[in-house]
Amino acid sequence: MENFGKMTFNKARMKERLPHSVYMKWKEVVRNNLELDRDTADAIAHAMKEWAIENNATHYSHWFFPLNGLTAKKMEAFIDRTDNEPLMRFSGKELIKGEPDASSFPSGGIRSTFEARGYTYWDVTANSFIIDNVLYIPTVFVAFTGEKLDTRAPLLSSTNRLSKIGSDIMNILEKKHTYRMRVKVGLEQEFFLIDRDLYNKRIDLACTGRTLFGARPPKAQELEDHYFGIIPERVEKFYREVDEKLWSLGIYAKTEHNEVAPGQFEVAILFENVNIAVDDNQLCMDILKSVAKKHNMVCLLHEKPFKGVNGSGKHNNYSIATNYGLNCFEPGDNPEENLPFLIFVSALIEVVHRNQTLLRIASSNVSNDHRLGGNEAPPAIVSMFLGTDLEDVFRKISDTNYKPKTKFEPMRIETLGEVPSDKADRNRTASVAFTGNKFEFRMLGSSKSAAELNIVINTAMADALERMYEELKNAVDIKETVYNIVRDRMEKYSGVIYDKDNYSEEWVQEANRRGLKNHKTLFDALKAVKDENCYEIFYKQDIFSKVELEAIYKIAYEEIKQVHLLELRTMQEVIQKQIIPMTMKQAVLYGKYLDTIENPVVRAELELFNDSITELYNLREEMIELHDRLETDEDIFKSTEELQKDATMLLEKVRNIIDELELRISEEINYIPTYREMFNSLV
Questions:
Q1: Max intra-chain CA distance, the chain
Q2: Are strands 432-434 and 118-122 parallel, antiparallel or unpaired?
Q3: Shortest CA distance to 252 belongs to which of 268, 230, 235?
Q4: How far is 237 from 217, CA to CA, in rounded Å?
Q5: Residue 380 main-chain phi, psi, to 5 deg
Q6: Which residue from 424, 411, 448, 67 is spatially nearest to 285, judged by alpha carbons?
Q7: Above 90 in pLDDT, residue 113?
Q8: Are 642 and 548 in contact (CB under 8 A)?
Q9: pLDDT at 375
């Protein structure tokens, strides 16, 4: 534990190294969302530089999250020129502001190629840290004209909006003064590990992150023998190095285990303030990938790298707490008397119902569309699970004739006697599930940044709480007003609450009857979002401007288009360089056999190979034509729609042919590693 947080310039480090007056000034800036003056910035920069150099840092970098969902940086050396000799220097100005090129990142048209200037500004609430001799400074990223070009700035804005209105409500409901609300998030990161040598032989995995073809292996996860099983020795060593790196950065990596699919694993990190949680998760993903390489493995963060087995998600555990530590989602012993709990849960019920499409978009990318709806991933229909006991509380308040379903008896365990039991089960098929003192948002894809989802939740919560505040601020009977709010929200929005099997056809029909959305793809959700006027909350809460939202919207379409184009190009190469040559070799073997012995079954197989080769050539030509026609089409919306439909259809046709061929080609000729081989290489 002596190395825990050694490489992060956190609050404890600042308190230790800064003059008391400077430290208190920084705390005041963070607490009250004020501007940092130059003298204070210079003092912090000097202390940060001295600490960094002591820990062998030679460079610093403004670290930011552009709109492609990745991280970005530009390194600068501490070294500077003087008249006589080099000097290690770092000023408050350099700490606060940087200037990367803004034209080469996705901007949705906000920045043109000739408009290069953009700025990064220090996020004073986040911890700076050292990795590989570089001091990383978390920053926001904006255009020269002020538009947001990242996800950190709107995340901070949405948190501040929620904090303000949440504090106003808490000061009506509670005697203890609230001056700030903190959004707390804990993220569970799922991923696959495969042998690097085998990965390099799979063109599709290397280029797209998923296998575009491949027959079902004889054994996958049917026997359920991988989940929570013995961690393979190679992976155990990998985990120990991951822990070492995460802990040195002060990241509370807590839980590690085998996931359901062979070769699939998970690491979970404890709760932090939401912007810190997003930082920690981005670092975690980078560290998982870099450490895997050292162990001759590759970490796959794609949501569905292998068909027929579980995909990977990033469960977003969400809660809201006051400055004195009261968790607004903690029901307590008497939830029906816990007014903050009733208000904030009612607000979240409203949020989930009113913002189904936004939650679907913010949780997804193209690859997550392959994951949703099966193998423990929630379906595309957004639903909410409260648990039997809490649903009873809310329905009883809204309907005095309601008969509770809850019946709890303590469990009796041999040698332990009676032990308390949880009051509610968990529903693994729900999109949003209450899990004791938090809500788990389960749609989020494993490769996605968690920033976008939490921007949506925070903004929508602030919007819902504002309406509740208007009802509460002049209330004579606070408890009765809270109960009226619960009744109103349950009447309008309880249709999103469902406690049964979300995978069933019964739920699809029931959801349709309730008027819930069923956007099966991200593209479908993007098409629907403008018609539903979902974006209005961002304007109202001053999170995004119209220009910024239009840019985000366009970038989403561009990403869908580029993913389909990439998969088309990849499949063309696989067909030409791997599948057809392999098929020809197998056909030659059959031909040699028929030269000696006539066998109608073998001849039928040979004809199947010949027909398949012809069909694959024809499909490859169709792919080339589709790709070349739509790649340069300037109508991004129309070309994306056509690609979404036609590329998916072509890939499915090719996949069906190749899957049949793979089952027939001998292992001596089939030099493309299978999922079974990849998994076995770890064990």
A1: 98
A2: unpaired
A3: 268
A4: 27
A5: -70, -20
A6: 448
A7: no
A8: no
A9: 58
Provide the percentage of residues in the chain whose pLDDT is more than 70: 94
Separation CA 94–CA 21 (nearest Å): 22
Q: Tell me the sheet residues that pair with 123.
A: none
Q: Average model confidence (pLDDT) for the chain? A: 90
Question: What is the pLDDT averaged over residues 107-119?
Answer: 68
Which segment, 173-177, 225-229, 317-321, 434-438, is predicted with the most confidence on average?
Answer: 317-321
* Residue 569 in tokens: 């190009």
**H/E stretch holding 465:** helix 451-472
Is residue 103 scored above 80 in pLDDT? no
Nearest CA among 271, 651, 276, 284 for reference residue 446? 284
Residue 29 makes CB contacts below 8 A (sequence gap 6+) with: 35, 36, 40, 124
How would residue 426 be classed by pLDDT, with cut points 50, 70 and 90?
A: low
Q: What is the mean pLDDT of residues 133-156?
A: 91
Mean per-residue pLDDT, 116-141:
91
**465 token code pair:** 């709480």
Q: What is the mean pLDDT of residues 446-454?
A: 96
Structure tokens at 272: 């932090």
Distance CA 484, CA 239 (A): 50
Q: Which two tokens stand for residue 183?
A: 């959004």
Amino acid residing at 259: E
Q: 55-87 b/e with 16+ CB inside 10 Å = b?
A: eebebbbbbbbbbebebbbeebebeeeeeeeee
Tokens read off for 517: 């959305």
Alpha carbon distance 231, 255 (integer Å): 13
What is the Cα–Cα distance from 256 to 34, expressed in whole angstroms?
A: 39
> Which pLDDT score is estimated for 427?
65
Give the pLDDT score at 114. 60
The tokens 């190979």 sit on which residue? 609
Name every residue whose Cβ is closer than 8 Å to that of residue 49 and which is 6 or more positions away in sequence.
60, 78, 88, 89, 90, 135
**Residue 669 tokens, joined:** 């000729």
Q: Which band of pLDDT confidence, cut at 50, 70 and 90, is reported for residue 111?
A: low
Q: What is the mean pLDDT of residues 333-344?
A: 95
CA pair distance 613, 462, nearest whole angstrom? 58
CA distance 587 to 605: 8
Is 54 exposed, middle or buried, given 0-12, 13-18 or 19+ CB atoms closer than 10 A? exposed
Query: Buried b / exposed e across 224-239, counting CB within 10 Å, b at 16+?
Result: eebeeeebbebbeebb
Beta strand spans in 7-117 (E): 8-9, 59-64, 72-77, 79-80, 87-88, 97-98
pLDDT of residue 561: 94
Both tokens of residue 192?
């696959």
C-alpha–C-alpha distance, residues 170 and 162, integer Å: 12
Q: Which two tokens stand for residue 48?
A: 């940060």
Structure-block tokens of residue 269: 């990190």
